[in-house]
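Justification of computing resources. Each target in the renewal requires a structure prediction run like the one illustrated here; the chain below, 255 residues long, is used simply to show the kind of job we budget for.
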Amino acid sequence: MNAIADAIRRAAPEGPAIVAYLTAGYPRREDFLATLREVADAADVVEIGVPFSDPMADGLTIQRSSRVALEQGVTLAWLLEALGGSGGGFGAPLLLMSYLNPLLAFGLDALPAAARRAGIVGFIVPDLPLEECDALKSALAREGIALVQFVAPTTPAARAARLCAASEGFVYALTMNGVTGRDAALPDATLAHLARLKAGARVPVCAGFGIRNAAQVQMLAAHVDGVIVGSALVEVLERGEDAGAFLRGLRVSRG
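Resulting structure tokens:
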């Protein structure tokens, strides 16, 4: 669990850590491990999205990438097997971002050990509320795997405190309500909300949803420990552009 927080904190003196999201098997299943290595070399932490037919928290970009991956036969089982046979050595800690159904279909008894063999050190499950996460959290804890919690801008303060206390690895702080892919609006109220979460959390706080460019990262630099970049990176991959160069271009200082 500490590998995630440690990676984010190591980046903090220079500027916000970069947490990169990419969809498993996208854009081409046969090239995925090479794509993952390129992204992991440029980011501090990597989230690998498990393709799902009903990604309710995701906008059109990640929906498209999920559909393309599913059409190529990408599944959670394929992903864990591919990672397990990759030889490891990725340049950043790896997390899985998955909706609950694929995890249940795989089986919570078998999942933690399979994830550990694949080099996964954390999970993010958008449709699993805090009150219902005990079974998964306990299963993952047996292998030392973190379970990250979400906090939205509209989350009441008392509940936000509970989520921050329960989150492992980092707190996933949404910059907006709704789905991924839109440009994040960063008014003073949003920045103040993020700063309050950072001040009260025992693990790093990373801002996600709508982060697309270095100017946004610079605005967030004083208020969070890291930023999460998903749809914008998937679009870079969709266009066949250099993912590593894009991620390195998001690096900013805290000055």
